[in-house]
Amino acid sequence: MPLAVKLSLIAIAAVLLHGCATPSSPTMMAVDGVKASQIKTNEVLRGRIYIRNVEGGKETDATGTSQVSNDALRLALTRSLENTGYLSQAATAPVALDVNLQFITQQAMGITFTIQSIVRYTLTENQNRKFYPITAVGVAGPSDTLDGHERRRMANERSIRSSIEQFVEALQTFKWD
């Protein structure tokens, strides 16, 4: 094979493998129906939670690294709370949920991306307040995709999904102190 063809193939492969950063998908971060069916909904909170505030997320810049936006996190939480029976259908409900994405690692390089997130979930009803600080990890490697940007996005999504799963699982034993 001529050298020019080899160099062209290498250049094309480099462009395809590099790609651009893409935002995290709410669908991939949400607790799906299969997992939700394994979680016993606490009757004290069934249909009583509304999402008041979501903060701490960042928008993805196509030339930067994949991020988790506030809107994507809110949508993932909405789907997760719907799927587990906790979300209120009313615009306001007795129990407010405030969510703060306090930290998410941004691994710059690597074969396997391991992303850690720290999310603080706060439930409030009248003067009662309960905090759930949750640390979670998501991993994506070359068996998931060869594109480094996509591996980072997938690890972000898996970390946030794990956090949301831990939160809704913790709600199974919820009671005001």
Taking the sheet with the most strands, its summary is: 4 strands, mixed
CATH structural architecture: 2-Layer Sandwich
Number of domains: 1
Estimate the global geometry from the Cα principal axes.
Answer: elongated
How are the strands ordered across the major sheet?
A: 1-2-3-4
What is the first-to-last residue Cα distance? 73 Å
Number of strands: 4
The H/E string reads: HHHEHEEEH
What integer value in Å does the Rg equal? Answer: 19 Å
Question: What is the tally of helical segments?
Answer: 5
Q: Tell me the structural class.
A: alpha+beta
Structural account:
- By secondary structure, the chain is an alpha+beta fold.
- 36% of the residues lie in helices and 24% in strands.
- A 4-stranded mixed sheet has the order 1-2-3-4.
- It is elongated and about 75 Å long.
- It starts with a helix and ends in a 7-residue tail after the last helix.
- The model is unreliable at 11-17 (pLDDT under 50).
List the defining traits of the structure above.
177 residues, Double Stranded RNA Binding Domain, alpha+beta, four-stranded mixed sheet, 24% strand
Task: Summarize this structure briefly.
36% of the residues lie in helices and 24% in strands. The protein is built from 5 helices and 4 strands; from the N terminus they run αααβαβββα. It is elongated and about 75 Å long.
